[in-house]
Design brief:
The chain folds into two domains: 51 residues, no CATH class; 34 residues, no CATH class. Helix 5 runs parallel beside helix 6. The chain is mainly alpha-helical.
């Protein structure tokens, strides 16, 4: 936890870290995520001595964004999910199709 933090930010850090670990994130990465999130919130609230322009001018807080900028892109359905959708739509030859072919066949 960064120096100069108050109890609220310490609780916030612990909560974010625990949630990340529950999702299967390593402890090291969970600590990093929590620290970055808390530091950004501190900067937005004027609780830190220095802050980047992005931290203070961003219209959405990290919590509101919900991972929009996580660089993972939109999560697409799995091949099995596409196969099940193709089965429900009675697509011919679905068992021999790969993920991209199934996506086209079901209209995604």
């Amino acid at each position: 936890m960064p120096a100069g933090s108050n109890r609220k930010r310490e609780r916030q850090y612990e909560h974010i870290k625990e949630q990340a670990e529950e999702r299967g994130t390593s402890e090291r990465r969970a600590k990093e995520i929590a620290a970055r999130t808390v530091n950004k919130e501190r900067a937005r609230a004027g609780e830190s001595k220095t802050a980047s322009k992005v931290s203070t001018r961003d219209p959405k807080s990290a919590a509101q964004r919900g991972g929009e900028r996580s660089h993972r892109g939109p999560q697409s359905p799995t091949r099995d999910q596409l196969y099940e959708e193709a089965r429900r739509k009675n697509v011919e030859g679905r068992s021999n199709m790969n993920k991209e072919q199934l996506r086209k066949a079901v209209g995604r």
